[in-house]
Amino acid sequence: MPAIPTSIEGHDLSKLLKIAEKTVKAKTDNSQILDVSLEERIPKFESSELTLGTVLGRGGFCVVNEIVAIKLKDVSQGASNAEKVADDDINHIVQDRGFMQANCLRGKGKDCRYAIKKLQDTSFNDASTFINGVVDLAVEARFLAVIRHPNIIKMRATCLGTPFSPEYFVILDRLYDIMGQRITKWKKKQPKGLGRMMDRKGKKELAFWLERVTVAYDLGCAIKYLHDSNIIYRDIKPDNIGFDVRDDVKLFDLGLVKEIDLNVRDKDGNFKLTGDTGSPRYMAPEIALHKPYNENVDVYSFCILMWQMFKMETPFEGYNMGMFQKKVVAGGARPAPDPKWPPEINNMLRRGWGDAKQRPSMEDVCEVLRSEISQNSDEEINEILDASRKSEMSLHRGF
């Protein structure tokens, strides 16, 4: 990365960082779940202790690289705020840093365990972009320090120093597939000559269906977990969903999450929150229209995503922004559920992307998916799913 500039568009960098710090404070001051003591227990690294490899992805503000090696300068250095951390926690931090150094690569050294997320070069070209990038990364780090769910990416460590530094980074578990890539793979391996799904005659066809339903269920449980913690995700899309080396689905990129205060709901159960937040293709109409909204905007986005996973096609493909605003946001156009899919699934999708007041909760959505899996699983189906899973894992090891 080039040298960090001292100013951006004539604005002193330190002043921009102060603005970012105030913004994060305003976003998180009244949080009921954030816990500074948990944040202090996260291991810390200097950038010079890390050797970076391939770029895995880029977003609006950040770049993600795999970490190919960790070489500690001082094993105990990661306990940066020792005066604030109990002795037992300091020992755990030291042990975690040592473990990460010794186990940076899996098995025989082919698979990287960890990835680093930091601001990308282009975020330093524009003052507003820089501030937003610092804010997003700092907010994400604070929430990842306290969130614990098997289908939400785990933060393993952070930068030694304040989040309001241009060189700040977080260390995450490395992912080996993004949902868009997985959908392409699913489409290529789709069994030919599918009959009506409800006939349930072909075991392979059924297993292929249940594979996608199971991924949707796991992902839905992660979103439900956030909602149970009074957190709205607000950015559900294929680019924010990946698969780890064990092929477990993971929700990542928590920069747009919003913790809600239930005491400030309006009479319709909504909140006055930022509009036009997220990706337009998956964005609930009420967000696009800058109306008050609540956690069921995630239900809308998730149902659009599930249609894409099940159909293996891009929703609203070919729409420009004008068409999208007119037909989808204002006109209520939605993807067409496939008549081959079970009626319970199709009814759930229609309700999920329908009127905001009538949408099911994430708990209801997960129950429909769980029922679909349990009603159709048997030993033979599970063996087919197992074989498919092992095949995906072997593909990962080839990266």
Automatic annotation (TrEMBL):
One of its GO terms (molecular function) is protein kinase activity. It comes from the Eukaryota. InterPro entries: Kinase-like_dom_sf, Prot_kinase_dom, Ser_Thr_protein_kinase. One of its GO terms (biological process) is signal transduction. Pfam families: Pkinase. The active site is at D235 (proton acceptor). One of its GO terms (cellular component) is cytoplasm. Residues 50-373 form the Protein kinase domain. Keywords: Magnesium, Metal-binding. Mg(2+) binds at N240, D253. This is Protein kinase domain-containing protein. It comes from Fistulifera solaris (Oleaginous diatom).
